[in-house]
Amino acid sequence: MEVCMGQPLADDLGFLLSRASGQVVRATNAALAEHGLRVRSYSVLVLACEAADGLSQRELATVLGLDPSQVVLLVDELAAAGLVERQAAEADRRTRLVVPTPEGRRVRDAAGRAADAAAETPLGLLGDGERDRLRDMLTRIWTATG
Amino acid sequence: MEVCMGQPLADDLGFLLSRASGQVVRATNAALAEHGLRVRSYSVLVLACEAADGLSQRELATVLGLDPSQVVLLVDELAAAGLVERQAAEADRRTRLVVPTPEGRRVRDAAGRAADAAAETPLGLLGDGERDRLRDMLTRIWTATG
DNA sequence: GGGTATCGTGGAGGTTGTCAACGATGGAGG
DNA sequence: CCTCCATCGTTGACAACCTCCACGATACCC
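The joint structure predicted for all components is written out below.
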């Protein structure tokens, strides 16, 4: 009887990763709802805010790990809410830079505080040093594939 | 100018978690495809294999962090493929225990090897000690909410 | 200039997440 | 015994998400 000897599911990093991720995303989505955002659109808004000259949708897709066609819808949604604008890029007229409106920056700040507070529930048992190491590991997982 | 001062998105644990999770899930799904499974159904199969007397679908949903209605479809799929069976529980006739077939155990082993190998690509940069700490942290994130 | 590549966009099809019901069963209390 | 309430599995509906492909517009290379 040597069948079925694999590691238990509770030791599988892929499984633990997606279960924990779902947990945090759920909590964050609930907190962002009152600001009219979800994790996805919030991420786009944050990235637009932290880039000095705006970001092309291609760059957004790459950083977020999403298909470019999804970014279109997210930017559409944010633009309809008046939080970002699509600006023509001078250098390359194919690309459209996503830049936040003043209102977008305000919402980003308020939503950011709500999101951080909400994520504290699932992440509360982690110390500062642990968070740093977790950040480092997750970043390396991301870069391992390209 | 104190607007837009939140942490960069690359430091947000929730974001890093879901991006890394997506990466691993993508790689694992690709590897499981040749066995006719995806991450979800594979997880159910593994849990059914490691429980001595089978698991109720309720327990499956709790452990996986899924809605019970999703478990129904996953078990349907696995049962249609002949990998698990629904057994009546003697103690409580409401519950239906999910138990693997011999074929299910064989597939679970083969698929497990493929999944582990595939996950090695995104997780390759992590040492053994790091994996242990990552497991510990992800498990605590899960238990932090109940 | 002409061929090739990239950017944004749209659409199709399948998967997942969320929620509200329903029948069937179990359990507690009168 | 009977009634009220909780739980389990199941179904259905709907939104969100993922994946892939194709197109027009623009850029780059030669």
